[in-house]
Amino acid sequence: MNVTNLFRIALRALANNKMRGFLTMLGVIIGVASVITMLAIGQGSKKSIQSQISEMGSNIISIQPGADMRGGVRQDASAMETLKLTDYESIREEARYITFISPTVNSSGQFIYGSNNTPSTIYGVGIEYADIRKYTVADGSMFTEQDILTSAKVCLIGQTVADNLFTNGENPVGKIIRFKSIPLKIIGLLTPKGYNSMGMDQDNLVLAPYTTVQKRILAITHLHGITCSALKEEYTNEAIEEITEILRRNHKLQPTAADDFTIRSTQELSTMLTSTSDLMTVLLSAVAGISLLVGGIGIMNIMYVSVTERTREIGLRMSIGARGVDILAQFLIEAILISVTGGIIGVFAGVIASLLVNLIAHYPIFIQPWSVLLSFLVCTITGIFFGWYPAKKAAQLDPIDAIRYE
Prior knowledge:
Layout: H1 3-16, H2 18-57, E1 60-65, E2 69-70, E3 73-74, H3 85-94, E4 98-113, E5 116-125, H4 129-132, E6 137-140, H5 145-149, E7 154-157, H6 159-165, E8 176-179, E9 182-190, E10 206-209, H7 210-218, E11 225-230, H8 236-250, E12 261-265, H9 266-309, H10 311-319, H11 324-361, H12 369-395, H13 399-404
Parallel strand pairs: 5-10, 7-9
Antiparallel strand pairs: 1-11, 1-12, 2-3, 4-5, 4-8, 4-11, 6-9, 7-10, 8-9
């Protein structure tokens, strides 16, 4: 019996039981659609995290003072004064894997304009800080090296600070705000960046020359940190090793002594968040895969029913010359048709469901071609796997017993 006839027989058999065939396909459809949707949500979350970290600066390296033991008591790292301007200058002059670098000092408190006030943080930074953190000026201009040298009382504010202080919608550039009784002239408004992947408002900040914050607000000479960016993300580890060597030399640390500073990079954060996202994607896909397994069991069940119902038909076919392999192929083709058709419908359902999730729930989605192909292949293999055993049982029937079957 040729393949064309086997397909015709299989299609006729499915057409005679349309509702039963559709309900069997439904398990496969739901399974494939679930896998595609879950993978789209997982990959969308991963892309969103990577995009937000990229906006923050994907190759940022942050240097902070390290905690220390004094009199048997471990000190808070924020109270340490191990980072100096000389460290910043050494890294800027000697480091080969660094593009931009900025010292950082900060202080939190109330900013006041007229009768309005808002809590925020002022960051004392260098002019390269904006390049490191991907900040741009929407109105006005960035402070200059001259402002840093003179500790000028100037600043740039984020959109959140502007909205809270200038409630009438006036242009904040050129206005004077106060922080701890220190007047600061606003020379620029930063372009809004929104919330980052950790839920932090990136627009609730004020930037000023680091010398202004050091001398006029905090009255300190040390730094709270140093922020820099590697040449490229792949050079982050080399940059960290280079910075470590420079700081250990500057701080005159013995080879066996622990670092009195800590270095972190956004690459670590990116790796952690994406690995968490990948784990969640695997878990979601595993749950969705269970429905695909249930769909496969449904195919096996319906094929068993079909073999039982058509036992006499099988006996008649075998008595007029049909071989066991023909009977096997006949029922296997039926199972494959169910799974493939269900898989095709499931792919479209999965894509539509993913788009609806994005449209209604506003979850980020990203449908990768490999996820669609993988779901379809798994669906087809499931149909073959679960359809093979009932088909084999049908092929092994004795023709005489099958004809006598009631």
